[in-house]
Write the structure tokens for this entry.
Amino acid sequence: MLSNSIKMLNKAKNEKYAIPQFNINNLEWAKYILEISQNLKSPVILGVSENAIKYIGGYNTVVNMIKGLIKDLNITVPVSLHLDHGKSVQSCINAINAGFTSVMIDGSKFSLNENINMTNEVIKYAKEYNVSVEAEIENIDDNYDNNSYSKLQDIIEFINKTDINSFAPSIGNAHGIYKNEPKLELNLLKQINENVDIPLVLHGGSGIDDEQIKKVIKLGISKININTQLQVEWSKQVRIFLNKNKNVYDPKEIINSGKDAIQKRVMEYIILFGSNNKY
Ligand SMILES: [Zn+2]
């Protein structure tokens, strides 16, 4: 069943594991991820970016596709359908109207005050629909150069002035492929965790080594976003398949040739995050 992410994230925070957010690009990715989550009895968050929503067809198409998969595949673990990096209040409202159960309002490009105002606008709307809201303040780098860190005082002010359900700090994490080995600011994370009650979210989870992942979960990270790594491994497998099978033209076969690569990685992440056997 589709639900918001409040209960699953609070449970994860209390029991010190992390819920995976896997970003989807199409029907197949959603299907592969749901199958493994069900097999491993892991709650899961399906993240969809504004670009992916546009690509798939629109907010309603995404919602109905996921609802259909949950029904047809008999998925019984909790699934949250989450707008990843909603860049405007309107984008979050569109997602909520279509039936998304969770949204992220990303006002990080605006001043702290503007960010607080737009986040509160989203929260007011989301509450009526029982939708959870995630937010961030400092821009999490799109290309890793390791210079963007959240300021503790800003985080505390932001959380005191909003009523968000989860918060994504910048602690040296980044989107995409890391240019250098990422070193997370664990001390900063520790301080944030000591001053903040709500579950914390790690963006850019692809490429962070297992040891650091285990440490950040202990320090209050209750949700980890994975996007790039699944894309890298899917495309690698599909490329090998196409080179080996020059005469194949059935798109079902071509797209599905990356299935095992995605499912293997999803399985490894769920076990690393400790979210298996939780339902
Ligand atoms: Zn992100």
About this structure: The chain has twelve helices and eight strands. Residues 217 and 267 are 18 Å apart (CA to CA). The domain at 6-273 is CATH 3.20.20.70 (TIM Barrel). The chain has a mean pLDDT of 95.
